[in-house]
Amino acid sequence: MKATAIAPSNVAFIKYWGRVDDVLRIPINSSISMNLNNLYTTTTVLFSPEFLEDSLTIDNESVDSSRATDHLNRIRKLTHTNLKAKIVSKNSFPKSTGLSSSASGFAALTLAATTALGLSLSEKEISILARQASGSACRSIPDGFVEWRKGEDNESSFSHTLYKEDYWDIRDFVIIVSTNKKKVPTSAGHSLSFSSPVFKKRLSEIDEKSAILKKYLKEKNFQRFGQMVEDEALSLHEIMQTSVPPLDYLYPQTRLLMEKVKTWRQKNIPVYFTLNTGQNIHLIVEGKNEKVLKKLLGSAEEVKEVIINMSAKGARVVQNHLF
Ligand code: PMV
Prior knowledge:
By secondary structure, the protein is α+β, with helices and mostly antiparallel strands.
């Protein structure tokens, strides 16, 4: 009753921000993302009658397992078991810094736990389960470029592949400016979104925005695509900054990099940024511009570490266990 899964984190081009159901994590809008091949979580789950309670170790540190236990309870219900589990998880990147470790973490936990219990579920069913633990985790289940259709209830809100990972050669440079943990959890941000006076306007435009982004993705029109991704990140931060109370996840280093991206574009280097709930920033370029961007970043003192990503497969079971 042991299984291990690897799941990628993902970067959203159209963001999930705000929910209509906080318990089931049904989003107020659909979102679009890309899985990231170098930002991933590996998780091994073992169910055994020897355990009196669930335990969770992340990156060699024993941590509070209550959110994982809530998720395992959903999964245990499906097989009518009460067996407790030992969970060991490793991230390839710093967690709680705005790089969506909860997406990769809960996607990997969902697949590892359902496999360990012998459940044979469809991609849709696994995505639905993962969504209930962390919304964006449902986008880390299918391969490549992914859409999470908001749906209207538990059964209709899940993700599917728009295009496989080899569809478009684009790179997501994850720029770590600091590994400090965020002070306000993303969940609190989702709830605050409704207090922003500009949130209604965002929602009235979001379906059309998604349709246009999908068109640029289909045409592989990088400049239009990139501009829209950047505008969407700014829209997310506008909502955060006008929420009551306001939320600001950005650091001075983040803002300096946002400015630098603009100046690089003026020099005809097509590079665009996106942001989530953290100080670290994603820069998007086409594969052919990877070297140019690497060079530019080499002289930027705000940069602590760079993780370069391509589009990746979704969650998968592997045979190498962590214990
Ligand atoms: O899945 P959560 O609750 O961690 O929310 C993710 C929110 C954003 O990262 C800001 C946007 C997104 O769609 O990933």
